[in-house]
Structure formats: C-alpha cells, structure tokens
What does this fold into?
Amino acid sequence: MTAVLDHLAIGTPSLADGWDLFGGVLGGNWAYGSDSPGFRWGQLEFAAGPKIEVLTPTGGPDAAFLERFLAARGAGPHHFNFIVTDIDATLARIRAFGIEPVGVNLEDPTWREAFLHPRSAHGIVIQVAEPAGSPPTAPPPREPALPGPPARLDLIEHHVSDLDRATRLFRDVLGGHLDAASAGAADLTWDGDRRIRLVRRDGLPHGGALHHVSFSRISGSFSAQERDRALLLAKGLGVTLELAG
It folds into this structure.
C-alpha cells in the first residue's frame, strides 16, 4: 500500500477568490473539477507540491457537511486528501492505529473513500481515497484568470498538540517519509516535493490547526503588488500565506 498527499482543500462560500489567488497570482493551472451532489469543486496544480482544491456548497442535503463547516468556522482549510493504492489496507492501518474512520464509502468502484474526523486527525479532516482509472476530465469554469508565473507549493505547516502521535499518523499510517525531526517539529514528504511540517503547539481546538501555506516563484519573486493582492485574497479564504523572496 502506498499513499500520496494529493491536495489541500479549501472551503469557501465563493470560488472566485480561490481562482484569483491560486491561479491568477500563484500560477496554478486548472487540473480538473466538477459538480458533485451538494457542492462544486476544482483543483489547481503547481510546478511542484500538492494541488489546491477549492470547494463551495450548492445546496440540498448533500451540502450540509460544507454548510456546517462554513457556518462554524468561515472559509478556510477543510481537508487533506491522500490517494492510496489499497484503501482496504489503509483502513486496516487506520483502525490498528486506534482511529475509527467515518464516512466510509466503498460502493463506487471508481472512487472508494473514507475520512478521519478532525478530533482524531489533529484538527483537520483527512480524506483517503482509492480512485480507479484516470482523473475526471472537465473544462475549467469561466472564472479562473489566466495563471500567473509558475510557482511551487513548498510547504504546508500544520500545528498539533501531540507531535509524536501526529508524526506517527502521517508517517506510519499515511505513508509520509520523515525527513527531519526535533523536539518541536517534524518534516514529512510524499513523492519528494509534497511537504507537511508538523509543529508542536499547545491549546489547539481538536488538537491541531493548519498554520500556513508557503509558495515560491520558479523564477524571480513576487512583486509588492502581487503580495498585497495575495494576502488580501488569502484573508477572504481563511488561509495564511508565506511567499518566499
């Protein structure tokens, strides 16, 4: 069984700011997306690192999970997604670790999935999924701006109350490679360039919270105007950015 950090999903009442930030300013290219029951979503990919997904509710009973999230917390990071080659083995490892998955749906052979609740996954939903075949293809919506200069998604920093257990979850259960560790932090990677840094911090609700996401330009650096625009859009999306250079 292998697992790869595929994307970080951001919940928002409107997708437009997501397109503007992650595409227009940060150079993400449309990967794919669709209308699913209760929500609309799209993913952007970068020169390196995991993808970013933005999703918004579209109403009806299937939108309840995302509407509850937005009502309680506002726009912000919603989940990590890990693509796995064997979800049955993954679920066995999760349960052996002492976590009972929720929302387990193994009926659709094209997309078998399960979730870890934030209370057991250090403050954020974790989705594990085993797809079959090629990713869905769909043209981009009209809203995304032309992508800006290419950038890398260098790092997702996530703060946790229990660093040891969080490290073991992301390493032993979710397949991360532990690149560096200290008394206060642990760096894990998937496929070399998909990186999460776990940082110990006390007093966090549900034991964790996503702290920031770091980007850097492939060539050159972000202008002062781009930085101002990015930080403004990120604030509306409930995401903290660090822009290198």
Notes: The chain has a mean pLDDT of 94. The first helix runs from residue 16 to 25.
